[in-house]
Specification:
- The complex is a heterodimer.
- By secondary structure, chain A is mainly alpha-helical.
- Chain A is 24% helix and 3% strand.
- Chain A has seven helices and four strands; from the N terminus they run ααββαααββαα.
- A two-stranded antiparallel ribbon of chain A has the order 1-2.
- In chain A, strand 1 and strand 2 form a beta hairpin.
- The longest helix of chain A has 12 residues.
- In chain B, 68% of the residues lie in helices and 0% in strands.
- The chains are: A mainly alpha, B mainly alpha.
């Protein structure tokens, strides 16, 4: 297919439209038996017109098409340890270290040392477990916000919230990031969940080192002062959004170690450090 | 850009001819699946180093699965626990192992426990096990993964990009595997979760998200149940952002999101909203960008992106709201035509099956636009267009339709069509056997003779009547053949 040589140049030049030639239609045009009428056409989803392109798309998904460029193999390096003081994990691959750090040392509640998979869940935890203002307000109004993104519902108790998440959002009853508080601190109505047989049964299946079961102080008062700055561990590309809240700083002294095999203590009961 | 290892579909150590045959078989299977409306494809991430993949992996029975799970859960040595899960993961490459796994009552529960532990490497291995399961063809296996979905969604906001990527591909596979999974994921908040996750700066996460979203949007219930929710979220804005042309555009990411946009648009739910959000202002420049890449011969895999872009543009142009769009691409902007023809030539060489899609856009551009029709003439694009006629019947009909779009605008346009190469080309298509090709040729000739009577003379001189008369018995063509005959002879 020969294209006019000036076409590439036209593409590179600025925008511009042609001054249209005058349009002058004769009513005879398109009259029966002829039927042509200029019109834009649309095709719906399942139209067979799309078959070829769809098949190409799926061949690509199945990796049958030639890849455009392969990323190089991830280099394996000499073994290196986690940089967080007290953590004894070692790694061969940077990505594994990165994941370890995010799982174990980021999003940690500096009050009770629980780790969370996201800053959103950590925020909720801090608010609901360690913020006296929240607890005061919660006596009078609905403060427990649904944990599902985009849902604005608020509830009087965490149990009500859990029921909502199970009924409306089809969340599991034993969702691990919404465990009820069983602290020895000032008891809040409705917050303490009974130790049902199911909970006990499930507990025996729990793993040592389960994040949510790591010891907590049981205190509700906030810590006196921020313990120290946390920043990206050495060697990792930046891209962190730490808030200014005091509670969110990761303690550099005595982070949770992977437990060595003992069953974790029950919620709320912890040996003072 | 394409980070994943070749999936299990690709046999290793094949010669070129075998690979071609293999690909033809896959293509045949996909065509059949599409006609049965069951087009399903999944992505498989395998992070194993190649030599491990070559080792023969055996099928695991229920007892072995239980053993590995127990070891992973309660082993004393961390390395031991990881190894146990890794062994399970390898076994799960086999459908038989997957079936055995889901038959065990507590296996998924245990796996979810491992997935949500704070032991990073165990968590990763557990996620990989889930990923293997997600790749099964059996909806029952996908449904067995239902207890894990709330956690997969939670982990979309994890800061670990590799982990998030894995969760996204797993979700994408599960989504396409079972309607029951989709029915659960929607109330669990997958759309808001994706709307947050799409803001990740990591390219691999973006691409994985695009994949998962494209699977969600492809579901048969999407137009009623899913696309409205997606349109109500901030996803469309972010999606368009990720399609902005320029040096930061990542091809792998763009492909996924262009397909997402296509599924949304062709479902005709609320395209006016997309236009308001700037879809045309993104897609137009993107088209120009693609043509530029072809000109610079940086075109590897480009057809994968060009296809959905063309479809989106073509469909959007049928919306009333498209008439008033300003932005970077003014109505009638000649660069669009230039870009389209550069792409048409590219398709001719690389992927002829995409020519109809490009010509569809050309039709939608020219149908109601004197400006574009004039540009087609002034940029000397008629002759290249004619060169496409012999490609196939479908292409022929489309080319003739575009030419009709030009001719129907009156004498000023037809005077530019003849004299020239048009008449001999149409005489050739008139001689074809395909009824639709001939029919469209008759339509074009009628317009040409009406607005440029001298062309009729030339037609007669070039033995046009003989060619015409070949079709006088054809039921669908008769009336037009006789009418055209009369016009040619008597004016």
């Amino acid at each position: 297919m020969q294209l006019p040589p000036a076409l590439g140049a036209r593409l590179a030049k600025g925008p511009g439209a042609a001054e249209p030639l005058p349009v002058e239609r004769d009513p005879v045009a398109g009259k029966a038996p002829f039927r042509f009428a200029a019109r834009r056409v649309r095709f719906p989803r399942e139209h067979e017109f799309f078959e070829d392109g769809d098949v190409q798309r799926h061949l690509y998904l199945q990796d049958v098409l030639t890849q455009v460029a392969e990323a190089p193999e991830r280099p394996r390096v000499r073994e290196f340890p986690c940089q967080v003081a007290g953590c004894q994990q070692v790694f061969h691959v940077l990505e594994a270290y990165e994941h370890h750090y995010h799982t174990q040392h980021a999003n940690v509640c500096s009050v009770c040392k629980r780790t969370f998979p996201s800053s959103h869940l950590l925020d909720s935890h801090l608010l609901e477990w360690h913020d006296t203002l929240f607890l005061t307000l919660a006596e009078r109004q609905d403060m427990y916000q649904c944990l599902v993104g985009g849902c604005e519902e608020k509830f009087r108790t965490s149990r009500d919230r859990k029921e909502h998440m199970v009924a409306c959002h089809l969340y599991p009853v034993d969702f691990r990031f919404d465990r009820p508080k069983k602290s020895k601190g000032p008891s809040m109505p409705g917050v303490l969940a009974p130790m049902s047989a199911e909970a006990l049964g499930e507990h025996s299946q729990q793993l040592e080192g389960d994040a949510m079961e790591v010891c907590c102080t049981g205190h509700v008062t906030p810590p006196p002062a921020p313990e120290g700055q946390s920043c990206t561990p050495p060697g990792l590309p930046g891209q962190r959004a730490y808030s200014h809240s005091n509670y969110r700083l990761v303690s550099m002294a005595g982070p949770p170690k992977p437990a060595s095999g003992a069953t974790p203590p029950l919620d709320g009961i912890c040996a003072p450090s | 850009m394409w980070r994943r290892q070749r999936g299990r579909f690709r046999p290793v150590g094949c010669g070129v001819e075998e690979l071609r045959r293999f690909r033809r078989e896959r293509e045949f299977a996909l065509r059949k699946a599409r006609r049965d409306q069951q087009l399903v494809s999944k992505r498989l991430l395998r992070a194993d180093p190649p030599k491990e993949a070559e080792r023969v992996v055996s099928i695991l029975g229920e007892a072995e699965i239980q053993q590995f799970l127990r070891l992973a859960q309660r082993g004393t040595e961390e390395k031991e626990r990881e190894k146990a899960l890794a062994s399970l993961r390898q076994g799960l490459q086999h459908p038989e192992t997957q079936q055995a796994f889901i038959r065990l009552e507590t296996s998924m529960r245990t796996l979810v426990g491992l997935l949500t532990s704070n032991q990073a490497l165990l968590q990763l291995e557990a996620a990989r096990c889930l990923h293997e399961l997600s790749h099964s063809d059996q909806p029952v296996v996908a449904e067995a993964c239902l207890p894990a979905t709330s956690y997969l969604l939670t982990y979309l906001s994890s800061h670990s990009p590799d982990f998030t990527e894995l969760c996204l591909y797993t979700l994408g596979n599960l989504i396409v595997g079972s309607e029951a999974v989709r029915k659960q994921l929607l109330p669990q908040g997958i759309v808001p979760a994706l709307a947050v996750c799409i803001q990740s700066p990591h390219v691999a996460v973006q691409e994985a998200l695009g994949y998962a979203l494209s699977q969600l949007l492809q579901a048969k219930e999407a137009p009623e149940k899913i696309i409205p929710a997606v349109l109500a979220s901030t996803l469309p804005q972010h999606l368009l952002q990720l399609l902005q042309p320029g040096p930061k555009l990542n091809p792998g990411v763009a492909v996924e999101f262009a397909w997402c946009l296509h599924y949304i648009i062709c479902s005709q739910v609320n395209n006016a909203l997309l236009i308001t959000l700037g879809a045309l202002s993104t897609l137009g420049p993107l088209l120009l960008d693609l043509a530029g890449a072809v000109e610079r011969t940086e075109d590897a895999g480009l057809e994968l992106l060009a296809c959905p872009v063309l479809r989106c543009l073509s469909n959007l142009l049928t919306e009333a709201a498209a008439e008033v769009v300003g932005g970077q691409i003014q109505p009638g902007d000649e660069r669009v035509l230039a870009a389209l023809f550069i792409l048409l030539r590219f398709f001719l060489h690389k992927q002829p099956s995409l020519l109809p899609e490009g010509l569809w856009l050309l039709n939608n551009l020219t149908a109601n636009s004197p400006s574009f029709c004039t540009s087609l003439l002034s940029l000397d694009l008629i002759e290249p267009l004619l060169q496409l006629l012999p490609v196939s019947n479908v292409v022929s009909v489309l080319v003739l339709t575009v030419l009709c779009n030009v001719a129907e605008k009156g004498p000023a346009y037809c005077q530019q069509l003849w004299p020239g190469p048009l008449l001999p080309s149409v005489l050739a298509t008139l001689a074809a056997s395909d009824t639709e090709v001939v029919g469209q040729s008759l339509e074009l000739l009628q317009l040409l003779f009406l607005y440029q009577p001298e062309a009729a003379q030339a037609f007669l001189q070039q033995s046009g009547l003989e060619v015409l008369d070949r079709h006088k018995e054809e039921a669908q063509l008769q009336d037009r053949v006789f009418a055209l005959r009369a016009t040619a002879l008597h004016g």
